[in-house]
From TrEMBL:
EC top class named in words: oxidoreductase
Organism of derivation: Deinococcus hohokamensis
Limits of the Nitroreductase domain: 14-177
Protein's UniProt keywords contain Oxidoreductase: yes
Keywords for this protein: Flavoprotein, FMN, Oxidoreductase
InterPro entries: BluB, Nitroreductase, Nitroreductase-like, Nitroreductase/BluB
Full protein name: 5,6-dimethylbenzimidazole synthase
Pfam families membership: Nitroreductase
GO molecular function ontology, one term from the record: 5,6-dimethylbenzimidazole synthase activity
EC number: 1.13.11.79
Length: 204
């Protein structure tokens, strides 16, 4: 690849953020399809492609997902004490209602043995996460923001969206035009955590 290709890739990597603040204007369909196309080129163990994506644009459905989030958030806040809990209460941790598009990425269990999973069957789920990462970078390249909401109950999402019984939701992703220009991770900006250097050693 050309040096400019490498430089462009690193600009996207450095610009990627976990967005929680969104504008409500719609996402262009062509851009959305390009982002979804990242799943076509994503790697997967045994070429299994064990994912299914549900696009959620209906506001009532997004509200139902938000209700699940609100309940989980209230429970999680109880895990922290003192100043940590006070700071937690100020954090915005999702953009479910503002972001015009929600993407539910579900794990699809294989119906037969999958090459490469004998000693590490979780590689199937890792493959789904890998595909999500590529979609995240594609969204960044499109000038859009994407945020992963981990504080939702998979069962509630499954029921609310009427997903097929064999699908197991792994991620709810908010997608839209970012309302904030983030130059560093938001949790670092608000003082919740800081990025650490890579833990690394060598075996030469």
């Amino acid at each position: 690849m050309k040096p400019e290709d490498r430089e462009a890739l690193w600009r996207v990597l450095e610009a990627r953020r976990d967005h929680r603040h969104f504008r409500t204007d719609p996402v262009d369909d062509a851009a959305l399809l390009r982002i979804l196309d990242a799943f076509r080129v994503a790697p997967s163990v045994g070429l299994s492609q064990p994912w299914h994506v549900t696009v959620v644009r209906n506001a009532a459905l997004r509200q139902t997902v938000y209700d699940s989030f609100a309940g989980v958030r209230a429970r999680e806040q109880e895990r922290f004490q003192g100043e940590r809990r006070a700071l937690y209460s100020t954090l915005k941790l999702e953009g479910i209602r503002e972001a015009p598009v929600g993407l539910v990425v579900s794990f699809v269990p294989p119906v037969q043995a999958t090459l490469g999973t004998t000693s590490l069957p979780a590689a199937l789920e890792y493959s789904v996460v890998s595909a999500i990462t590529l979609a995240w970078l594609a969204a960044t390249a499109e000038g859009l923001g994407l945020g992963w909401v981990s504080l939702v109950e998979p069962g509630a999402v499954h029921e609310a969206l009427g997903l097929a019984p064999h699908l197991r939701p792994l991620a709810y992703l908010c997608l839209g035009h970012p309302a904030l220009d983030l130059h560093e991770p938001l949790l670092q900006t608000v003082g919740w955590a800081e990025r650490r250097p890579l833990a690394l050693d060598w075996r030469d």
